[in-house]
Amino acid sequence: MDEEQTGGYSEICGQCGEVDWGVSDEGRFYCRSCHNVIERTKEVVDTNTFMIGTSRVSSISKGTKRKKLEQGREWMVCEGFQFILKHQAEALLAMGVCPQFKDDVLCQFWRMYLQKSRQAYTKNPVHDGKFRLRSQGSGESESAPELSVMSDSMMSASETDGDGDWASGGGSVSGHTSDGVSSVCSGSVDAVSYLTPRQRRSQGLMSMPKTLALCHLALLWAREAITLADLLRFVNEGHIPYVNAYEGFPEEMRLYGRDSLIFRVESIPSYSHLHKEAQTLAVFLELPLFPPITLDCLLHPTLLTVRYLTEANLPDELHDWVCRIMEKAGMESSVTFEPMRSRSPLPHYDVQAAALIIIAMKLLFKLDDHTEWDLSNDASDKNKENPDGNSFNLRRWYRTMQTALTTAARRQQDNIARKHWKAQKPLYTSKKDKLVVLKRRRIAEQLQLSFQKLSGSPVAPPSSPPSSFCFCWGEEGEGVRDGPSMHHHTLDSSVRLRGASLQPSNPEYWHPALRACKPRFCKSHYAEVEVTLPRMYVWLLGLFSFLLGVKPGCVYEEVLKVERRFLRSSKSQPRARATPRKTQPKKQPKRKQTRKTCSR
Amino acid sequence: MDDLESELRVPGELGENESSDDESINRKRIKKPNLPLAPPIFKEKPCETGFHKTTRNCLQHIREALLHHRWQKAAEYMSSYSQTLEDTTANMPQLYAEIIWRIGTEILHHHPDSKLEDYNSFYERVKHSGVKHYLKVCLEHSFHLLVNGQFEDAKRQLSIAESWRYGKQSADQSQRIKLIQAYSGFLDYIIWCEKKATVSSTDEYDAGVNQEMHSYFRQSSVNLKEIMKLPGVWDPFVLSYIDMLEFYNDHEGAVKVLNDYAYDNNLPPNPNAHVYLYRYMKKHDHPSKKLLKVLKILHTLVPSLELMLEYCSLLLQSDKEGDLQKALGVVLDLLDYASWRSNLDVWNHLMTIIKRLRLRKQWLKLVEEEMANRKDWWLAMHFTTFQARRDLAVNRELLEVKRFVVGAFCPRYASMYCGVGKETRKGVTSEAQKTKRSKKAEKDKESKTAKKAQKRTRKAKSRLTLRKLLERRRAHRQEQKCFKDA
């Protein structure tokens, strides 16, 4: 049709912004939507699109040639994921992850995955039957050697180059199967097999969230200081390629049709989803015991709590209390992950650290909407008496934190509203859609430009360099945006010396009923108990859930988990009990959820 | 009322003897107050993709910015909202295109830096974002150009729209095409007007220009005639067509067009049609009989129209027997509307009518016929003490005229109205008093009796009509009697 005559000339019409060119009888180009004739004739096009040859002969042969070029070479879906993983690993390396991470950890994991899912390094590849079925027209003889070529090349790659030449891994897959079959519905060879219900159910196949899960496992293995919450935040901020990651594919790997269903990303997975995904993946890979998280690793709760204390602008002295709690809960030893033992789930390092801090806060300030304010009054009195002293005032901290939190939440909302999801090169599911999709893309782009011009500001929110911290505390000065630092404040108003050791001046500790839960059937109880909890406690949960990007319920559950261990151990060990005191239990029998008060 | 009460009632207040069914109903009501809240627009859906969350949030931000008139901000968000067009899972892509179109034009209208080129490019983009809105957007674009005085461009837009075809022509689409044709006729008329202005300014006869004008006239008249056949309100089209016909001295044709427009039963009733017809006839000195006929219909359609004053004076001019009574009816109808209530002209008309009527023998009977429906409230509405005070403040002459009228209609009632007049008159200069006295002298016996009545009722300073007051007293007495009997 005209498309052949215009030779794919796809400039936008200056008159109406359409791309719908036709060639008139005189060989001139005109826009079919606004009948605008442009300064371009048929002959010129030929020389433009194909640099070789200006004669008409070349234009005759161009049809098939062009098609070949458009198709690109053949590739497997796992190659695509390999590229994405490679880009993600490179982004992580650029952030300062140790160089062994990419080649020695992630690459190995990826190979294990390929082997376990029988996509490579195996005598019994998963797609074998599939291939035979699909390439019936072209003959079976072609597909079998090709596969062996592929697996061979992968083998050799893994054997010879330890430095992991990623891009070449898939490059040796031969590109000479017949066009006809594969070009119908997808750019990749085996996209169809990814979308069959059986394969989906088996969950062995790669997906976009799984790339992140794999990265997370590899980071854990390498004992890097990037927690899952951090990883997700970097993805959200665009420091790690995830949305439209396929744009980094080399030119000859064409994506269309079914591929778009696999590679198109319209949302970033949630924390809990990714956590679950990572756990299943670890089990699927049958990974051995992970390297232990010791005190020299930033993932260790001792160090992680320091980080979150800094983030939440809490005094450094609180860390001693956190460490004491950790010690009592016996959490220093059991911080590693062994996938093959069913009783050792993948720990939430970051949420656990937050839970420890919350428990420390509860221990010192009780957080029952009364005691903490009384203690704040004491602290402010003390500060008045002694102008040089700076005891930690919870009220002041709450106010500072609340303003910072509100601004940050608003900023986050704004970023969400302005986030750009669509790629420069849109994906289309079928040839039929191609024109529509491209047209929409063009119009959206032009509209965006025109409004941008009107508003005079860039569309994308200004991206900040990757950082572990959301907030920035300090004295008034440059670079401080959130408020004065309280890290150096002392806890002297809420702690008192009893005997040889320091004890919190607040004698009581409360916790929600530690009832037994069926982990299979019970979901989070947070929604039902939320109304019965003290507001300050809920606010604190909200603060940490915002910092980590998880649901408040998740933090709540983790606090309960840690509390369980902590209380159990403090009951069994008599020395943990400091001055035993009779407390006035605030029992409200009518409430479904009894709040227990323990004396310590 | 019932619902509200039950909603406001606290559950503890429920009577113990109430059945459990009632209680459950009440509880239900308390749980779900049936308030007429609008359904939430930006509700989060259970499994929402990040992309949809972004667009939902973005739209919410745009809405807030629009409501606070922060156009700059709205434009910023709008530029990222345009990605909704690329939504692959949208079930209603047309809806998003429409949202962008509507909000985008709104922003452009208010944004301080928006230029005509921005409009042009925006409309071009939107036109191509969805097939369904193509014609509407074209029409709106040409309206915008029209308002900005770019007639040629507006005309070009419409001709592009006219030549546009997509798929099967739906009924909706064909109607819109007709509207587009009508507007292109209207634009032809505007261009014609421009040409006319240049011709009249140069004062030279130019055959070429004339020829051109005539061709515009022909093009325009074809389109305009076409649209007038359809039911609808086509005022600007009719006026422009009449203007052209008038220029070419086709008076009969013009009258025919106007007649058709006014009297065709297919068209919706349109008072303007009759107004145009009347004005045209008056301009071209049609006999008053015809004018009266048009005005009579207009009176039935819109009794409060300004033209009714003209109607009244026309009726007063005629010599026919019944016309005076008709005029009375017209004036009384006018006075029923708040906007005319303190209009001096109307009251003057009423005064002259009464003066003329009085010359006849059975004039009271005639008045009673007209007043039959208004008997209960007419006097109370126009002649309260409050009204009198206000009339005095606004226009003293009006007060005098009204006093005359009330004196003529109901001398008894005059007291209340005039009493206030008197009270307030204390501060009036002696000169004014003199004139009033001379006018008073003119008044006949009835006004004197009115004064007596005024003395009697002065004690009862309420705004109730006398009759009502009496009735109430009577009823009260009867009640007391009944009590005594018992």
UniProtKB/TrEMBL annotation, chain A:
Residues 578-600 have a biased composition (Basic residues). One of its GO terms (biological process) is nucleolar large rRNA transcription by RNA polymerase I. PANTHER family: TATA BOX-BINDING PROTEIN-ASSOCIATED FACTOR RNA POLYMERASE I SUBUNIT B. The keyword Nucleotide-binding does not apply. Residues 267-454 form the Rrn7/TAF1B C-terminal cyclin domain. One of its GO terms (molecular function) is RNA polymerase I core promoter sequence-specific DNA binding. It is found in: Nucleus, Nucleolus. GO terms for cellular component: RNA polymerase I core factor complex; RNA polymerase transcription factor SL1 complex. Residues 129-179, 568-600 are annotated as: Disordered. Residues 150-159 have a biased composition (Polar residues). This is TATA box-binding protein-associated factor RNA polymerase I subunit B. Residues 9-39 form the RRN7-type domain. The keyword Transcription regulation applies.
From TrEMBL, chain B:
It holds the Pfam family TAF1_subA. One of its GO terms (cellular component) is RNA polymerase I transcription regulator complex. Residues 1-10 have a biased composition (Basic and acidic residues). One of its GO terms (biological process) is transcription by RNA polymerase I. Residues 1-30, 429-467 are annotated as: Disordered. InterPro entries: SL1/TIF-IB_Component, TAF1A. It comes from the Eukaryota. Residues 450-467 have a biased composition (Basic residues). This is TATA box-binding protein-associated factor RNA polymerase I subunit A.
